[in-house]
Amino acid sequence: MTLFASRAMAGLFVAAWLAAVPFAAVAADSAGPVVKTELGAVRGTAGAVEAFKGIPYAAPPVGPLRWRPPQPAAPWTGVRDASRFGHDCEQTPYVIPTGQTPSEDCLHVDVWRPRGAGAKPRPVMVYIYGGAFIGGSTAYPLYDPARLTAKGVIVVAVSYRVGILGFLAHPMLSAESPQHASGNYGLLDQIAALKWVRANIANFGGDPDKVTVFGESAGATSIAFLMTSPLAKGLFQQAILESTALEQLPTLASAEKAGAAVAPDIATLRAMSADDLLKLNGAFTAHAGTDSFHMPTPTIDGYVLPLQPRKAFETGAFTAVPTIIGYNADEGRMTNDVPPDLTVEGYRARLKALYGDKAADVLRLNPASDDAEARTAAISIFGDGLFNEGSRLVARSLAAREPRTFSYLFTRSVGGAGPPPTHSEELAYVFGTLTAPAFVKHGPPDAADWALSRQIETLWARFAATGDPNGPGLPVWPAYDASDPYLELGVPVRVGAGHRAAQLDLMKAIDDAQPDF
């Protein structure tokens, strides 16, 4: 892990009582379709895409359930209204305002399906949002899955705890735990939501044995972590990871120490309001030499995460499934901590402070002859350390065990103008939300943008249905191998190989040398 990467993470980044009934037997009336789940019936909204929102998959983690693994939700009688999103989980700051009221009562899933999906089970895509583990929402307009659902898939979005409420480790919490672990409540939420999908999605018309998890940033990183967790084994059959940050995580002892430094008594923290707790998000710092995290993150707790994810991928201690993984051409530009007035001299001093005796090698592969080049190079290094090298590591490890591994590089800027796309900018193309409020700042999309979006939607849906994005009328996408091939998702779509290979090789060597903490 580089200090570039850790600072970026600091700044950024979901008892049966009704018998299950076949999908074909579920009736819909003029007020909206009704589906039975294990806990009760829900009524969604009608349309070309039918939506069922705010369905609880676990009990509200409030009061004595704060900082505990998700517990079973209570069943309900009658038909529950599922026409509106549930609460966003408590967080600060909001990356994209949604208009939803934040609450600790936020463990829910949202389900979208094509109208008239029929009796044949559909492939399922489960979306895990990003937000650096301190934010995120299933209600972001950018994530509207209507166009993706129209490709014949069922989409489920998962809400999970973030920040201090999702990732606090503390010695008293570990003492309460039968597994003597704490700190990964947000990941446990994701696992509980995937169990809900497995138990209930057939009633919505989905195939519980054809589940593709997909996510971006912290969502993609979560999926990588779940691949290394024995608790998630068998809960998904395929994966799409967009911009994965395979950072070194704090050990349980280090994370507990950081938690205890905020308040030695967990009862004190449980008595605090969510608003007051959120003010402590930046108080969690697990140290490793000059590197540090300045926010709660997942923890190597020996239970949810038995090993450092990097080590798990390098040693084969993970579940290999067909996977698409990639990143954007200029990942570091959105998340960087590079000063706007960085000079060549400042750049060289920065590299020396960060990389010590490796600084000369970093400079050789990322040269700069003037101040503008210096800042561009620093931002590129930042993206390599935070997203690109980790994504390549996962791709290489997967390909050694799963031939259906595919890599991409997203290079399209809206309208074909402006700088290369940075972190998260592929999402509007994946969901076909190029005119969403959160994306209009990039300017109006043109015909080429919409065409690329349709192609990406089709590739993602094809992969969800078959485990292979290749098919009639689609670009030939080579399986990943030692030459680091990728499909460039740009205009035009084409095959490339070895993106920034030397730079990523050096970054891997630097990351591998980092000590545990």
Give your account of this protein's structure.
By secondary structure, the chain is an alpha/beta fold. It folds into 2 domains: 15-292, 3-Layer(aba) Sandwich (Rossmann fold); 332-512, Rossmann fold (3-Layer(aba) Sandwich). Helices cover 32% and strands 16% of the residues. It has helices spanning 3-11, 146-149, 163-167, 171-176, 185-200, 218-227, 252-262, 266-270, 274-278, 309-315, 332-335, 344-355, 359-365, 371-399, 427-431, 447-466, 501-512; strands at 28-29, 32-36, 41-43, 49-56, 79-81, 88-89, 102-103, 108-114, 122-128, 154-158, 206-216, 238-242, 287-288, 291-292, 323-328, 405-410, 485-489, 494-497. It has a 10-stranded mixed sheet, sandwiched between helices. A 4-stranded mixed sheet has the order 1-2-3-5, with no helix packed on it. Strands 6-7 form a two-stranded parallel sheet. A hairpin with a 4-residue loop joins β2 and β3. α1 (3-11) packs across α14 (371-399), α10 (309-315) crosses α14 (371-399) and α12 crosses α13 (359-365). It is globular and about 70 Å long. The model is unreliable at 1-30 and 287-293 (pLDDT under 50).
CATH topological fold name of the largest domain: Rossmann fold
Shape: globular
Q: Architecture of the largest domain, according to CATH?
A: 3-Layer(aba) Sandwich
CATH class of the largest domain: Alpha Beta
Strand order of the largest sheet: 4-8-10-9-11-12-15-16-17-18
What would you call the structural class? alpha/beta
Gyration radius from CA atoms, angstroms: 22 Å
Assembly context of the chains: single chain
